[in-house]
Structures are given as C-alpha cells and as structure tokens.
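May I ask you for just one protein sequence along with its backbone structure tokens in two labelled lines?

_____
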Amino acid sequence: VGVFSLIAKPKSQLYSSCALWWVLMHHLLLHTFHQPENCLVIIFLCAFPFFPRRTDINAVTNWNAPLVWEGTFDPVVIDAIYKKMDPRVAVVVFAVGKYTRFLKAFIETGEKFFLVGFNVTYYIHTDRENEVALGKGRKITTVPVPSANRWQDVVLGRMKWIRNEADYLFMMDIDSVFYSRFGAESLSRLSAVLHRGYYKNTPREKFPYERRPESKAYIPAEEGDYYYTAAVWGGYLGDMYKLVKYCYEMSEEDTKNKIEAVWQEESHLNKYLLYNKPTKVLSPEYLWSDYDKVPADIKVVRISQLVKNYAEVRPNGGH
C-alpha cells in the first residue's frame, strides 16, 4: 500500500515521501533483524527505484552489498538512522617522524567533513604530540610509539582497550585531507574502498594482487572481485580486530619464509577481503589522490591523498 501511495504522488512530493518511507521501513526491519547494516541493504534495494538512477556506475556488488557512490543514498536519512543508535567511532592514524606535518590538516578537515555530529575519537599514534582544536564531541587520544615499530604491532596492542571505547573503527592514512562529506553511509560491519587505479577498466587478472604462491597473500589470476586500498578501511571493532590480526599474522609468516608481499599489508588485506566479503564497498570517492585528474563518474571527492615527496618524508624513501 505504501509503495502504491508513493507512486501516485506528484514528482515534487515523491522524494520527501520516499525518505519517510525509508525511515519507517528501517525501523520495522531493525526491530525484526537487529542488524542495521542488513536492514540498510534491504532498504537500499527497495527504495532505489524511487530515486534518480545513475546509469554510469554499479551500485550493488555481485554478493548484494551496497556499492556507495554519490547519488545512491540520502545523506539526511542515513545520518538520522545512525544517530538514533549513537555509535562511537574510533579513527586510528599514524603520524610518525616527518608524517606529523600532515596531522593538522587531516584533523581540521575531518572536523568539517568526517561523521559530523557523531561521537568520534582520533587515536593518533605518534612519536610527538600535536595540539589541534576540535569540534564539540570530538576527542583526541595521543598514543606515543617508537618510530621503529610496525603499525600492526602497535594497533593490535592498543585495540584491546579501544574495544571498550568504540563501536566502529576506521584505519586511515594521515597524509590525506577531507574535501567533502564522509558520513554514516560509510558505516557497516566491514567497509572497504575501491582503489582509484583499478576500479574501472582493469580485468581481475591485471589487479596488483600478490601472484607468488610462496606468499600468504597469494591470489590466483582467475580469482578476485575488486582491488581495495589499504589507506582507508573500517567496520565493527571486532571485525576490524580480526582483519588487522590476520594481516599481522600473515605478514609474520611471510617474514619467516623470507618473502614480503608485493604491497605489504594491502596485499594481505585484499586476500582477506576476497574470502571475507565486505558488507559495504565504498567508491573511490572515499579515497582519491591529488595526483590524479578527477573523472566524470567521480561526482565528489570526499578524501584525497596529498601530493608529497615520498623520498623526503619516508625513512626508506620510495613511493
């Protein structure tokens, strides 16, 4: 009945009516299934016909998870849904050595665009402390680390107490700035971001997966869904702990076997996500690069990696 009443409405009233219908459907499904992400998938598929369609992108993966692009969600509605649940969000970043120069811009732009109005804490792993003014409800926890420590070692140790302070966790690269809204549409049990270099015309056999069978990150040429970046990823804290632990343990196994995956933790991340599918895939809007021209299908750049001299900022140089 609700669907037919929406179709009968004038176009000028249609979208606001759909938004209301979306919220009502969400609450019905949430009380039934108790899983907001599962409900959103169903709502997304049911509500999609009532919103203007984008014909230039895929909005659903082949395992029926949302593939999030500008124009495939209502930001007001989805923020309202999640704010009812009042989730606590942790953001883990590393600002070690010369990378501390990127911290101020990351935090200040995050204050303008990242989950605005939500309870967000930045966990900054650094070998020096920086003071940055934050918006209401935002917190910074500075975690001193020796610059020689591997990030996996540090995160696994710290996650044990972060787990009592947050519901969702994002891992992000500090050498990035936010340019536009990065909202609750990004939240799910496990969210991965399509790598900007391989999302459009690259066949799976050309993805830069680890192709050496000796590595624990090995993926055969005939397998693969997408290639994901390791610069932004997030999800439920428990699921993120499993993923970080997996990357750590597989990297350690490779080290014992005197091999390193071609793209280090990103290679292990892609191996994990091939067999443990993300519940939400975010388009390259959720991590672009200032090095690259923005194509027509990227309607908005939400966060982007900065242009920098890698040889100068990285202890071991390189890109």
Observations:
- The mean pLDDT is 80.
- Residues 2-84 form one domain.
- The first strand starts at residue 67 and ends at 68.
